[in-house]
Amino acid sequence: MRISELAARSGVSVATIKYYLRERLLAPGSLTSATQASYDESHLQRLRLIRALISSAGLSIGQTRQVLQSVDSPPESIHELLGVAAAAVSRAATDRSSHERVHELMRHWGWRVDVKDCTSHAALAEALDALEAAGFELPDGMLEDYRGHMEAIAEREVASVPTDSPESAVRFVALGTVLIEPVLLALRRMAQQEASARRFEPGR
Amino acid sequence: MRISELAARSGVSVATIKYYLRERLLAPGSLTSATQASYDESHLQRLRLIRALISSAGLSIGQTRQVLQSVDSPPESIHELLGVAAAAVSRAATDRSSHERVHELMRHWGWRVDVKDCTSHAALAEALDALEAAGFELPDGMLEDYRGHMEAIAEREVASVPTDSPESAVRFVALGTVLIEPVLLALRRMAQQEASARRFEPGR
């Protein structure tokens, strides 16, 4: 197909496609004349992944390139591939020393402590530090409770990861991580309102 | 106590306390001479709440004033009081028409649809719209699953709300909402890593 059809089918403008070609996120089409190239389904699929990573998951061009490289030369295991996608959407790791406490918790829960991928450990360490700094004490057993629910959610999510292609696996993880977070947070606030109404206004 | 002692005990500088006094977030002390005022435990408690709302929950001075007003003239029910705190930490409501779908879901779940407090409904509507725009389809039953877990979490959280004073209830809700969100998100990402390792690298 021509670039104009690729644009129409992907919903990405011709100018943006040309930009992705220049940035080498998208492989060049095969030349059919000196000024025209032809694109196929693989270009369309790649374009959809690029859009997902940039527009929806909010990755930079550089981060997107990094994820795409791991799609093109996938590491041996899907677990490692998903790690690349997850790391790209995570904030940069901060102080490593502050989260030994988190590693302790993980060992207690029987979770693997993979120091190659500490970004979410750092995020948890920071969040627990912030609670402490605010003088907010979690009720007894609450952290365990949160962990249990998040474990059940993650279990089901990972079971749903499609494995037919590296593209679809990475797309699922990048989008699922970023786009589902606001869903969970909104549901929690709504559920709190509902629980508060039930506890404090049972009559209504 | 003098303002210097109030500063020492609260960890808030004298200059900042004076600023809060000017902004009428903190009631004036009782004058002991033309240039000195005396403060008591109620000032200390109020100061701690102000710090929690501003530094930890990230509220503006205006939002803090609004929450404090509802602490001083609490609405009839604690549920309404918590609503003021929850609304202050929520993002501004956006397009109201787009979330009729969320109200449908809530009715289906047996949740009260309180149109006075639509900020979190708007947040959920936006999040679901973003998923759709990205062409990300939630696996069957997944939203129900998320809802169930968030409901269980909220149930326990609301059961923990202290009711000894409006101050402590509001502090718990404002801090609990804002500071626990990153805890949950970090736990989910860590649990995903763990589940991914178990699914895709069972041998290790």
Provide a quick synopsis of the model.
Chain A is mainly alpha-helical.
What do these coordinates show?
Two copies of one chain form a homodimer. By secondary structure, chain A is an all-alpha fold. Chain A folds into two domains: 1-56, Orthogonal Bundle (Multidrug-efflux Transporter Regulator, Chain: A, Domain 2); 57-200, no CATH class. Chain A is built from nine helices and two strands, in the order ααββααααααα. Chain A has helices at 3-10, 14-22, 41-56, 61-72, 78-89, 100-109, 119-133, 142-159, 166-200, and strands at 30-31, 37-38. The first copy, chain A, has a two-stranded antiparallel ribbon. The model of chain A is unreliable at 91-97 (pLDDT under 50). At the A-B interface, α3, α5, α7, α8 and α9 of A face α3, α5, α7, α8 and α9 of B.
